[in-house]
Amino acid sequence: MKVTQEKLSGSRVGLEIEIPAEMSKKVYEKVVQDLSRTAKIPGFRKGKVPRQVLLQRFGSESIKQAVLEDLIQDGFKSALQQEDIPAIGNYQVLSSFDELVKHYQPGESFTFSAAVDVPPEVQLGDYASLKVQAEENPYDVAEVDQFLEERRTEKATLIPVEGRNAQSGDVAVVDYTGKYLPLEDGEESLEISGAQVSDFEMELSEGRFLDDIVKGIIGMNIGETKEVSVEFPDDYPREDLAGKTTLFTISLKDLKEKELPALDDDFAQEVSEFETLSELQSSLEQQFQEKAEQGATANIENAILKELLNYTEIDLPETMIQQEVETMLRQTLSQLQSYGIDTKKILNQETMAQMQQESRPEAINRLKQSLALEEIGKQRSLTIPADKLEAEIDKWKKQLAGQKFDPERLQEVVESDLMKEEAMKWLRENVTVELLPPGSLAEASEAEENVAESEVSESAATTETPE
User: Fold this and answer.
1) CA distance 164 to 337
2) Are 92 and 115 in contact (CB under 8 A)?
3) What counts of helices (H) and strands (E) characterise the chain?
């Protein structure tokens, strides 16, 4: 079979495939024979319909269409095998099918054109000279104390308060009613729907409830009633309250304070598997140190991946982009479902199309970064330790126990992921990384945005409006 290749944009290969006369005749005869065995025509037994009657009954055009569909499909598969083309996704017939049917003659050769996506070529610049800036992620010794205090708070005992007013950190039991402020003098205040609550228990701490109400309760005595002005932020979820100033009538019915357990060995045994407080503190120090190191490594890797895009040229095939977008959407939907959200109620054809469009830029960047890492692994002849590969495959097999999977495909995926890890390790060890204090990059980015906005404003102000 004669096959001519042509390189197309978008990492596609165009193929001109010539179907030999003998294949043309063979497939035609097979289609007619199959039709003869299955056709039901009055006056003839199944399988005994004369060819001429069969052709008249179904028409030569429809039979030729069926023949060409088989010839094109089989011919394309044979062409891929013959030319050893690593196709991605489905092929596209470029020739007019109607024209092919019109000119096709059984037993004669014919030629058609098709195209298919193939793995893209990765062109890398001098990535070894890559320079990045990344923020440090230092270990904060206060994290251990903060963690222990949070656990103590969780285990606290509530005891009644006597002889004093409400203080920050107390737990208050209140009744409250909220009203909109009247727009004009003499106008009656309307109650806020859902803002009439009895015996509501709240902790008098920042972020636990509306800050204006928490601040208003602090200083109150049990049995006291007070009116508190509450300003809702512009981005408040309830549109009827967003940006509004309201008035809440609050009655303090009861007050309790938290009695924290002692920070000792008994406490350590209650909240962990350790016998002593010292052992628990040592374990927490190690955990937070490792977490800090992982955060610093993640900052460096993210900076490298972002900069690596500037050294990478890839003409991505549409098939790969669509597959990556679908993967990202599945991950997003799975995450939403894990939060208890019924995705069927919030998704429709329009929102799905919008999510696909919004995911496309990130999908392209992820693909480019992934392919660039794989190419670096090849160029640097990096290898994966055999024991590491075997351990990772065994881990996945345990996770997939009871499910059907392709062992060869699993190994390919694992090898690809581990190779990218080795490539990233090589980059971390060889590129130039400048570590900056936490928050530096965010501040620099904000400053650049402010400068850009200022320049736009100045430009707009100095632009003369034509008369």
Assistant:
1) 47
2) yes
3) 14, 13
Amino acid at 371: L
Over range 270-298, report the average pLDDT: 95
Would 2-119 and 157-259 be classified into the same CATH topology? no
Long-range CB contacts (< 8 A, 24+ apart) of 291-300? 292/137, 292/138, 292/139, 292/140, 293/137, 293/139, 295/137, 296/134, 296/136, 296/137, 296/435, 297/428, 298/137, 299/134, 299/135, 299/136, 299/137, 300/132, 300/134, 300/428, 300/433
- Beta strands 131-135 and 122-124 are unpaired
Q: Both tokens of residue 38?
A: 């299955």
Q: What is the pLDDT of residues 71-115, one digit of tens each?
A: 999 999 999 999 999 999 899 999 999 999 989 898 899 999 999
**Predicted confidence (pLDDT) at residue 228 exceeds the cutoff of 60:** yes
Q: Residue 167 half-sphere exposure, CB side, CA atoms within 13 Å?
A: 8
Please give the model's pTM, rounded to 2 decimal places.
Answer: 0.72
Domain 157-259 CATH assignment equals 3.20.20.60: no
DSSP annotation of 463: P
Which residues face 4 on adjacent strands?
A: 16
CATH for 2-119, options being 3.30.390.10, 3.30.70.1050, 3.30.365.10, 3.40.50.740 = 3.30.70.1050
Residue count of the chain: 467
> Pick from 374, 330, 377: which is nearest to 356 by CA?
330
Residues 6+ apart with CB under 8 A from 141: 285
Exposed e or buried b for every residue in 146-171, given b needs 16+ CB within 10 A? ebbeebbeeebeeeebeeeebeeebb
Angle subtended at Cα 86 by Cα 368 and Cα 427, rounded to the nearest 5 degrees: 30
> Contact at 8 Å (CB) between 180 and 240?
no
Domain segments of the chain as ranges: 2-119, 157-259
Rounded Cα distance, 426 and 429, in Å: 5
On the CB side of 201, CA atoms within 13 Å amount to 5
Report CA Rg, the chain. Answer: 35
Q: What is d(CA 91, CA 83) in angstroms, rounded to the nearest whole number? A: 15
Q: How far apart are CA 1 and CA 75, in angstroms?
A: 8
